[in-house]
TrEMBL record:
Residues 206-378 form the Ketoreductase domain. It comes from the Bacteria. It comes from Actinoplanes ianthinogenes. SMART domains: PKS_KR (SM00822). This is 3-oxoacyl-ACP reductase. Gene3D superfamilies: NAD(P)-binding Rossmann-like Domain (3.40.50.720). Belongs to the short-chain dehydrogenases/reductases (SDR) family.
């Protein structure tokens, strides 16, 4: 459904009215299109004394064709401000952040990017360093709410030993792929990651399974993974057969009709993956999900059971069997689709919020176990995304969902899909246990 207010706000008359009345001002976001440059202008790169990442980051950006400036010039417009804060060891040294960002806060182009690189507080040398590094979260989240005009702001904690694994994340956060991701904290673990042969086709040769693929976000995920080179198995319930076939055909993949809540679903899926020429799967995206909304006082047991069954129990069962049979290949990726409701809760959605918080728990509890198998598991947590389902919401709730975020607009299914594709990349090998909100930096649960 078209966002009529956003279209009006971006018209000539609308811009005047919005500015005069102080109304929400949704910018036109810069989203990725094949062939786009990584950024649309130079990147200003700064560092606190003793930082361990700026040298590597500068080399990576230059090799990607980005013009890197290490000192600001008056009047220059920058596409991104990147600051290496790993050298900050106590609260007094936080002044380096002010000295870098204050002079150039107004020098970003529209839809600019801000990235701060830090050390995970738990990996700090002592309490003072840990305190200072934790402070970075307040800075980046505030910048995301201050800079406006489609600017995104992120904090990337890089564990010592993870310096060679940052390229995939930098490329995602600097590009239009991350248009609706802001105010997030991303953790990159120790170790190295292999760069794909072609960053435009990072999933070439991979087999991806996408559940709930017949429409909406699932269809966008299938299309995006296929665009990035993967062969896609699009899975959904038999009742969605025609729509599912259309998605699979467009992705040049395969359609698989299966109800994941059936008692033998995991066994049938494992058999299907075992029999294929690939003999396993590289990427598993648990997107299938349903809502059955009622306040808990008015909810019957069937609504509770069906939502928990589809959204949480089915992914658990599928994961358990595929991992037990060794069908998720070494270097594999598992990605769950949680929700902002699982973080902030939502009235009338106790069942849904419980299931989506469970997806987050599944990621966090399983990540250390899967690390030993060279498999990562992460989740996206969408906020208000423009789909057929949200188009049916009452207008008041729909408008609130669209406006209560730093972008003053709803996201698109492609925004969720791009984030999943980043998790799935070979270059994201040391990113595991992360939950990244795709919500335009929602004011709910912030």
């Amino acid at each position: 459904m078209a966002d009529r207010y956003a279209n009006f706000a971006n018209s000539g008359l609308g811009r005047t009215v919005v500015k005069r009345l102080g109304l929400p001002d949704p910018p036109r976001l810069r989203r990725y299109r094949p062939g786009d440059p990584l950024v649309s202008g130079p990147v200003l790169l700064g560092a606190a004394p003793g930082g361990r990442l700026s040298g590597e980051v500068g080399k990576l950006l230059e090799s990607a064709g980005v013009t890197v400036a290490e000192s600001g010039a008056a009047g220059t417009k920058y596409a991104a401000l990147v600051f290496d804060a790993t050298g900050i060891g106590d609260s007094e040294q936080l002044r380096a952040l002010f000295d870098f960002f204050q002079p150039y806060a107004r020098s970003l182009t529209g839809c600019g990017r801000v990235i701060v690189l830090g050390t995970p507080p738990e990996a700090a040398a002592g309490p003072r360093e840990a305190t200072a590094q934790r402070s970075l979260e307040g800075l980046t989240r505030s910048i995301g709410k201050e800079f406006g005009r489609g600017t995104t702001s992120q904090l990337v904690y890089v564990a010592p030993g993870g310096e060679q694994a940052v390229e995939s994340t930098l490329r995602f956060l600097l590009s239009g792929r991350s248009a609706y991701v802001s105010g997030q904290v991303i953790r990159i673990g120790a170790g190295s990651a292999s760069a794909p042969a072609d960053w435009d086709k990072p999933l070439d040769g991979k087999l991806a399974l996408v559940t709930g693929a017949a429409r909406g976000i699932g269809a966008a995920i299938a299309a995006t993974l296929a665009r990035d080179g993967a062969e896609v198995i699009a899975l959904d319930v038999p009742g969605a057969g025609d729509a599912l076939a259309d998605v699979a055909n467009k992705a040049r993949g395969r359609a698989l009709q299966l109800d994941l809540t059936a008692a033998d679903a995991a066994e049938r899926l494992a058999g299907y993956l075992s029999a294929g020429p690939h003999a396993g799967v590289d990427i598993v995206v648990h997107n299938a999900g349903i809502t059955r909304d009622k306040t808990i006082a008015r909810m019957d047991a069937s609504r509770w059971d069906s939502v928990i069954g589809v959204n949480l129990t089915a992914p658990e069962r599928v994961n358990d069997l595929l991992l037990e049979r060794g069908l998720v290949t070494p270097g594999g990726r598992i990605v769950g689709v949680a929700s902002i409701a699982g973080i902030a809760g939502n009235r009338g959605q106790t069942n849904y919020a419980t299931s989506k918080a469970g997806v987050i728990g599944l990621v966090q509890s399983t990540a250390p176990i899967l690390a030993a198998k060279d498999i990562t598991i992460n989740a996206v947590a969408p906020g208000f995304i423009e789909t057929a389902m949200t188009a049916k919401m009452p207008i008041g709730l729909r408008e609130a969902g669209r406006r209560l975020n730093s972008m003053s607009q709803g996201g698109l299914p492609i925004d969720v899909a791009e984030t999943i594709a980043w998790f799935a990349s070979p270059g994201s090998a040391t990113i595991t246990g992360n939950v990244v909100r795709v919500c335009g930096q929602s004011l709910l649960g912030a």
